[in-house]
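Reopening this ticket.

The earlier resolution said the output was attached, but the attachment link was broken on my side. Pasting everything inline this time so it's all in one place.
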Amino acid sequence: MKNILIVDDDSELRVNLSEILSKKGYHTDEASTGIEAIDKATAKKFDVMLLDLMMPKMSGMDALAEIRKRSPGTKVIMLTAFATVDNAVKAIKKGASDYISKPFKIEDLDAIIRRALEESRFEEGIKKLDMDFTLSSLTNSIRRKVIKLLHQNRGLHLMEITKALDIEDHTKVVFHLKNLKESGIIEQDKEKSYFLTKEGEKTLECMKILENYLSR
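Inline output:
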């Protein structure tokens, strides 16, 4: 049973999420402040943490850096009412795995939690196989799906990729595309269409090997 820590100063939200996630088979715990979250993450291993961005005394963003130090294996999902690329980039640069905007649908949150758990599993596989940094940046399933899409369909625009991924928040897709571009895995042509580079094609082959390894 996977352990999830719910961190939010809204007690009603914490209770509701705890009940819903418990019914889905997760073991849940709660914290009302960033300081309490840090203490709990230090004392116990959590697979996933749902961390509110805006809280009194210590914001989720400030708590995140310390949580990553004390519990590096915990996947942190930011809960925010300010879903912008800048906020997403800041949170993920500090170690967050993903983010979701309030108000959100529980099925969307569940999907993000499942992606985070898959990311952990992927990272463990990378450690065992001693993969390099470029492939380790692909623990996120959205980025892997983008690579496969661009392998199947050369020259896709942002909105085409967003639609194919079935993600409403296109800013999230922008962030992942930027990450892939900085890694040299994808590029854009003059028409702003995305395509796989030669490095991207090589990375795809490595992904297939790793996915076959993990499916054993």
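Reporter confirms the inline version is readable. The domain at 3-118 is CATH 3.40.50.2300 (Rossmann fold). The CA atoms of residues 53 and 60 lie 4 Å apart.
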